Automatic annotation (TrEMBL):
Residues covered by region (Disordered): 342-384
Protein name: Uncharacterized protein
Low complexity compositional bias, start-end: 366-384
Length: 384
C-alpha cells in the first residue's frame, strides 16, 4: 500500500505512516480535518472503516464509509459486494437507529440509505454457515475427484458375489443382493459409494447406533482412540473389493501384476476386442479406485455420527433439527455416557438410549448434574 509521510500525535505515539494507524484514529483524523486532501493516502483503507462501523452497529457510519470510499475511488463496487458477502449482518439496535435518523442532516440521510442497503446485502449467520459448508463440500468433492479420477459409476453386472463377513459382532450383509436392488446416488464414485455404504452400515448392528463407536483410519498409526473401536479389516477389505468391482476394475489375484495371458479364463469372459489392454487399464486405475473406496468408508462412518437414533423406530435417521433435537439419541450424548461409564469401570459397549435422553433432558434443570459429573450409582448400563 502506498503511504504519505506525516507527523501526527496520537494516543499511540508519533506515527509517520497514515495507513498503519488503527482504524479509529484514521477515521477520527479524516473526520476532524486533521489531514487535508493532499496529505491523505490515496489508498486509504475504507474497508477498515466499514469493519469498525459494523462492530459499532452504526448504520450511519457504515453508509459514510461506503460513500466516502466510492467518491474517493479507494473502494470499488466489487469490493463492496465482497465485503457484504463475507460480513455477518449486525444486530442494529432500534433506538440507536432512531437517534441516528432523527438527528441526521440531509447528507447523513444519504449515508443512512447507503448503510441500510449495505446491511440488506450482508448475510445472516445461518446463510453464511450454509454457504461455508457448501463451499467446503464442493472443495472436498473437487479435491477427491482430482486425486481419484474414478468418475461416475454406471450400474453394471458384478464379476462375483460379495458378502461382508459376520465378525466381531457385525452382521454379515449380502452386498450383491443389496446392490442389485439399489440405485447408486451421487455425481461421482466417492459420493455413490458413500451413499451405498451408509445403507450397509445401518444394517450391521441392532441397535444400529452401535456403528457410531467404530473408527476407520488406515492412513494413521493410531487406529483408534478412547471413544472408538477399530473397524474390522476383513469387512473393509470386502467393501473395497466390492467398490472396485462395481467401478469395473475387478481383477483376479493372478492378474494383478506380471505377464498377461490372452488365454486366461477371465480375459475370455470379458467378451471385448482387446482384453489385454483392458487388464492394463484396470491395473493402472486400481490404486486410485482403492483410495476412493477407502475414503468412502471413512466418510460413511463420519456421516452416520451426524445421524440421530430414533428410539421408537429403532433406526438411524437424518434429523433436520440437528443439535437442537430433543427426541432422538445423538452421538455426542452417547460418547459422554460412554466416557462416564469408562471412568466408573463399567462396560462402555452398552447403554440404554431412553435413559441417556432422560439424563440430558434433566440437564436443563439447574438442580440436575451433568452426566459426566454424576456418581457411579447413576451410571448407565443396560443389556440389549
Amino acid at each position: 500500500m502506498n503511504s504519505v509521510n506525516f507527523a501526527q500525535q496520537t494516543p499511540l505515539g508519533n506515527f509517520n505512516n497514515y495507513s498503519q494507524l488503527e482504524p479509529e484514529y484514521q477515521y477520527e483524523m479524516q473526520e476532524t480535518g486533521a489531514l487535508d486532501e493532499e496529505e491523505m493516502d490515496f489508498n486509504f483503507d475504507h474497508t477498515k472503516m466499514l469493519e469498525k462501523a459494523v462492530q459499532e452497529q452504526s448504520v450511519l457510519n457504515i453508509g459514510k464509509a461506503a460513500r466516502q470510499g466510492i467518491s474517493k475511488g479507494t473502494i470499488s463496487e466489487v469490493q463492496l459486494e465482497e465485503f457484504c458477502r463475507n460480513t455477518r449482518r449486525p444486530n442494529i439496535p432500534l433506538f440507536g437507529f432512531f437517534q441516528e435518523s432523527e438527528n441526521s442532516t440531509s447528507d447523513e440521510q444519504a449515508s443512512l440509505r447507503m448503510g441500510q442497503m449495505m446491511i440488506m446485502k450482508m448475510s445472516t449467520t445461518d446463510v453464511r454457515k450454509i454457504e461455508s459448508v457448501q463451499a467446503s463440500l464442493n472443495s472436498l468433492s473437487a479435491n477427491f475427484a482430482k486425486h481419484t479420477k474414478v468418475g461416475y459409476i454406471k450400474q453394471q453386472k458384478m464379476s462375483r458375489e460379495y458378502e461382508t463377513p459376520g465378525v466381531e459382532g457385525f452382521k454379515g450383509i449380502n452386498l450383491s443382493r443389496l446392490y442389485n436392488t439399489s440405485t447408486l446416488i451421487g455425481n461421482d464414485a466417492l459420493t455413490q459409494l458413500t451413499n451405498f455404504y451408509q445403507k450397509v452400515f445401518k444394517m450391521f448392528f441392532h441397535p444400529s447406533y452401535t456403528i457410531w463407536t467404530y473408527s476407520f483410519r488406515p492412513a494413521t498409526v493410531r487406529l483408534t482412540d478412547k471413544h472408538f473401536r477399530e473397524f474390522p479389516l476383513q469387512i473393509s477389505d470386502t467393501l473395497t473389493e466390492f467398490g472396485l468391482d462395481i467401478a469395473g476394475l475387478h481383477l483376479p489375484q493372478e492378474l494383478l501384476d506380471g505377464d498377461i495371458s490372452a488365454n486366461h479364463p477371465f480375459l475370455q469372459s470379458l467378451l471385448i476386442e482387446d482384453p489385454v489392454t483392458e487388464i492394463k487399464r484396470r491395473r493402472r486405475e486400481r490404486e486410485k479406485a482403492i483410495f476412493t473406496a477407502v475414503c468412502a468408508i471413512g466418510r460413511t462412518l463420519k456421516n452416520l455420527r451426524a445421524y440421530h437414533f430414533d428410539i421408537e423406530k429403532s433406526c438411524l435417521i437424518n434429523c433436520p433439527n440437528g443439535k437442537n433435537c430433543k427426541d432422538h439419541l445423538m452421538w455426542e450424548q452417547l460418547k459422554t455416557v460412554r466416557l462416564q461409564n469408562r471412568n466408573n469401570g463399567v462396560s462402555t459397549n452398552e447403554a440404554d438410549p431412553r435413559e441417556i435422553l432422560s439424563k440430558f433432558a434433566s440437564m436443563k434443570n439447574p438442580s440436575s448434574t451433568s452426566p459426566v459429573a454424576s456418581s457411579s450409582s447413576s451410571t448407565v448400563a443396560h443389556k440389549h
